């Protein structure tokens, strides 16, 4: 407990609070800027276990704000969760950590949610947040939203049975047109979002998260910070948190091809894309391939392709989903 002496001294944590934190399993969806910082703060706070999910690898443009990663990780295109695990275990050798180099779809989300005491949002898009929201409410787990772009940040805690859900709030949220890939971001905005998110998580884990409930929004550059109360905005017919219990985001969608938000990249999930199929395709087409322990990378028809070992491929340099599917069919059809 000596490691946590300063946190235990803090009047709202104490020995009892630390014991509660010590028992917690935290599921973090996304290991980019938000997930890097929240996973490190939760590890240092003393949680028992972290489950980390991310589909991407480290790139040079991440290093400005994604605190767990070093230049080597970008040079070697190490998957974010692998680099994160290395760093988190250096900080906390006793931490239990499970990593998943995967797209977070409905079935994975459902499986992991039921193992977690709390879920932290480290994503950058509405669709995945709705998925987290629906899984959290279906399995009765609290979750904490966080977002940041440019110099602004926002956060909100959602607790099934106590607060309205994220789906209820969506009509009130600002338009999602800005992403950090299109509008940019400064690192302090990430740290503000995560500081609020982790504080809310500590309040939830120690049983001190209580009404009135707020969403908080701020802008560091403009030196503004506001909060608005969310207690009374539950949508009567919400598909997630009313008595309907439909959780629509948990339905498996037939469409397994998706644009990655602002990345000029299309992801295709297709079970034909096995390691053996990739090997056959590159031999057949006489393509040079860069093989890492986690994926095969090669150029095909002018596009850079990254094939992970679990039926998933990233087609970089296009946002045309038809073009992406055509390339996949040419390679694996
Ligand atoms: Zn709702």
Describe this structure in words.
It contains eleven helices and 14 strands. By secondary structure, it is an alpha/beta fold. The protein folds into two domains: 250 residues, Rossmann fold (3-Layer(aba) Sandwich); 76 residues, TATA-Binding Protein (2-Layer Sandwich), CATH 3.30.310. It has an eight-stranded mixed sheet, sandwiched between helices. A hairpin with a 3-residue loop joins strand 11 and strand 12. The chain starts with a helix and ends with a helix. The mean pLDDT is 93. The site of zinc ion has 9 residues, from helix 8.
Give the CATH H-level superfamily of the largest domain: NAD(P)-binding Rossmann-like Domain
- Sheet-strand content, in percent, reads 15-25%
Gap between N and C termini? 57 Å
Structural class: alpha/beta
The low-pLDDT segments are: none
Write down the overall geometry: globular
Estimated radius of gyration: 20 Å
Under the CATH scheme, which architecture of the largest domain would be assigned? Answer: 3-Layer(aba) Sandwich
Mean pLDDT: 93
Provide the domain count.
Answer: 2
Helices and strands, in order, run as: HHEHEHHEHEHEEHHEEEEHEEEEH
Give the helix tally. Answer: 11
**Major sheet, described briefly?**
8 strands, mixed
CATH class descriptor of the largest domain: Alpha Beta
CATH topology of the largest domain: Rossmann fold
Helix amount: 25-40%
Arrangement of strands in the largest sheet: 3-2-1-4-5-6-7-8
- Bound chemical compounds: zinc ion
